[in-house]
Amino acid sequence: MEANTRSTGRLPAAFLTPGSSSFMDFLSEHQPEILPGNRQLPPTQGVIEAPHGTTIVAATFPGGVVLAGDRRATMGNVIAQRDIEKVFPADEYSAVGIAGTAGLAVEMVKLFQLELEHFEKVEGAQLSLEGKANRLSTMIRSNLGMAMQGLAVVPLFAGYDVDRGKGRIFSYDVTGGRSEELNYAATGSGSIFARGAMKKLFRDDLSEAEATTLVIQALYDAADDDSATGGPDVARRIYPIVTVITDDGFRRLTETEASEIARSILERRLEQPDGPRAALL
Amino acid sequence: MSTPFYVSPQQAMADRAEYARKGIARGRSLVVLQFADGIVFVGENPSRALHKFSEIYDRIGFAAAGKYNEYENLRIGGVRYADLRGYTYDRDDVTARGLANVYAQTLGTIFSSAAEKPYEVELVVAEVGETPEGDQIYRLPHDGSIVDEHGSVAVGGNAEQISTYLDQRHQEGMTLAEALKLAVQALSRDTNGSEREIPAERLEVAVLDRTRPQKRKFRRITGGQLSRLLDAANGGGTEDAGSEDAE
């Protein structure tokens, strides 16, 4: 079967059989062994050591949503990678950020992007935002076996809902349980600190520029208190990845844009290490 | 038991080819041409939902004339082939040449197998390159042969006549509006040489645009954008298509 995709022979019958518009459904019938969820795991003792991605944050603003992530991957108490990318476009109007086992998560994102693109090409129309969020749920659920062995993937999904005309955020647990978050959300080891920061800073009338500052502030606070989350690395010029999704579609802030915000935050933190203060009452 | 009549292989193949050609000729022709920034697909199609052109992969587009259910099946097969290949290896490993080969093998096997009826389709697989020199256009007739085309190509019932018309007038480095105008002129000519009007809402137009910042270069041109382009082309007025740019 594998040979069919490599050789220049005719398309195998499965390719020409009318069926689902889902790429994963096609794979599970035609070549189930390459789907990540079908992998047979040997019995293991203890936790498998693999690089972990840490903190992802998201916040909505009128007209869109921002999704951002720090750049650190850790393996135990070692920094495995300083410039990992954990936020990806899922399609034109949505993005996904991943915390958890980096290797599996990146693979899941790749398959998720393909799933959305495949549907769009076959059907000639995009899935609804709910549909996309549910598809991601299914993928996480199929990873449950691995999650039980410590290889969990916990994404944060954000997108612009073209039907409702607003940005929306969905968070997940390891079992694939999905919940829509109001205003802001975070996932990963630094998420508790990031969420605390956003709780104090969030307002529902933020501009796009303010929302991008908000998420970088939150990532700074996460890095401040969680050793697995990386702060802006000025010396190496590694800054958080920030993406914005509006009715214009997906856009990733350039390195210059992200560095400008990160540097101005750093500047302020030199005077006020704990960041902006919220009113007491 | 009676002995079946002997039919020579030549005759059998000629019959099958004629059957397929007749089927294809029932559909309307379509054209694919290169312009400065990519490749444009133009065809007459009264339906808004059933497309003749579509995206296969990042830089690869698909066009088909003939029987809808048959080419739709091949199109989805191609999307599955491309997506699976890109997933197993890398996105760069999906090429129009590879896809054209798979289609050729598929059509060829069906054409020469006595158990199946030949497909009544003619396909075009096109890939836009970084530069016009890198563009690839393959035409796949019903029998599974592959023709490597340059500049312009027409498929469907009236293809030969349209091709000749295009070959004489197509130039390198045309703007999108100029290429579109030429395509519409070619399509509006009837077999007997008379011209008819094709209204914009009956046109299906899509491009593989190499200047698009996204990885996926395929986009449809519809509605206001299409009428603006057609206006720009007609504003450019003269027979030899002026150098006026599209808005």
From TrEMBL, chain A:
GO cellular component: cytoplasm; proteasome core complex, beta-subunit complex
CDD domains cross-referenced by the UniProt entry: proteasome_protease_HslV (cd01906)
EC main group: hydrolase
Prodomain residues: 1-53
Gene3D superfamilies assigned: Glutamine Phosphoribosylpyrophosphate, subunit 1, domain 1 (3.60.20.10)
Single Gene Ontology BP annotation: proteasomal protein catabolic process
Annotated compartments: Cytoplasm
Record has Cytoplasm as a keyword: yes
Pathway: Protein degradation; proteasomal Pup-dependent pathway
Catalytic activity: Cleavage of peptide bonds with very broad specificity
NCBIfam families for the chain: 20S_bact_beta
Regulation affecting activity: The formation of the proteasomal ATPase ARC-20S proteasome complex, likely via the docking of the C-termini of ARC into the intersubunit pockets in the alpha-rings, may trigger opening of the gate for substrate entry. Interconversion between the open-gate and close-gate conformations leads to a dynamic regulation of the 20S proteasome proteolysis activity.
Name of the protein described by the UniProt record: Proteasome subunit beta
Active site: 54 (nucleophile)
Listed EC numbers: 3.4.25.1
Subunit structure: The 20S proteasome core is composed of 14 alpha and 14 beta subunits that assemble into four stacked heptameric rings, resulting in a barrel-shaped structure. The two inner rings, each composed of seven catalytic beta subunits, are sandwiched by two outer rings, each composed of seven alpha subunits. The catalytic chamber with the active sites is on the inside of the barrel. Has a gated structure, the ends of the cylinder being occluded by the N-termini of the alpha-subunits. Is capped by the proteasome-associated ATPase, ARC.
Gene for this chain: prcB
Gene Ontology molecular function terms on file: threonine-type endopeptidase activity
Keyword annotations from UniProtKB, A to Z: Autocatalytic cleavage, Cytoplasm, Hydrolase, Protease, Proteasome, Threonine protease, Zymogen
Family to which the UniProt record says this protein belongs: Belongs to the peptidase T1B family.
Presence of keyword DNA repair: no
Top-rank taxon, per record: Bacteria
Automatic annotation (TrEMBL), chain B:
Main location: cytoplasm
Subcellular location: Cytoplasm
Pfam families named among the record's database cross-references: Proteasome
Record-level GO cellular component terms: cytoplasm; proteasome core complex, alpha-subunit complex
Gene Ontology BP terms: modification-dependent protein catabolic process; proteasomal protein catabolic process
GO MF terms, alphabetically ordered: threonine-type endopeptidase activity
Residue ranges crossing the lipid bilayer per the database entry: none
UniProt keyword annotations, A-Z: Cytoplasm, Proteasome
Activity regulation remarks: The formation of the proteasomal ATPase ARC-20S proteasome complex, likely via the docking of the C-termini of ARC into the intersubunit pockets in the alpha-rings, may trigger opening of the gate for substrate entry. Interconversion between the open-gate and close-gate conformations leads to a dynamic regulation of the 20S proteasome proteolysis activity.
Functional pathway: Protein degradation; proteasomal Pup-dependent pathway
Functional description taken from the UniProt entry: Component of the proteasome core, a large protease complex with broad specificity involved in protein degradation.
Assembly description: The 20S proteasome core is composed of 14 alpha and 14 beta subunits that assemble into four stacked heptameric rings, resulting in a barrel-shaped structure. The two inner rings, each composed of seven catalytic beta subunits, are sandwiched by two outer rings, each composed of seven alpha subunits. The catalytic chamber with the active sites is on the inside of the barrel. Has a gated structure, the ends of the cylinder being occluded by the N-termini of the alpha-subunits. Is capped by the proteasome-associated ATPase, ARC.
Record PANTHER family: PROTEASOME SUBUNIT ALPHA/BETA
Family: Belongs to the peptidase T1A family.
UniProt name for this protein: Proteasome subunit alpha
Lineage of the species this protein comes from: Bacteria, Bacillati, Actinomycetota, Actinomycetes, Kitasatosporales
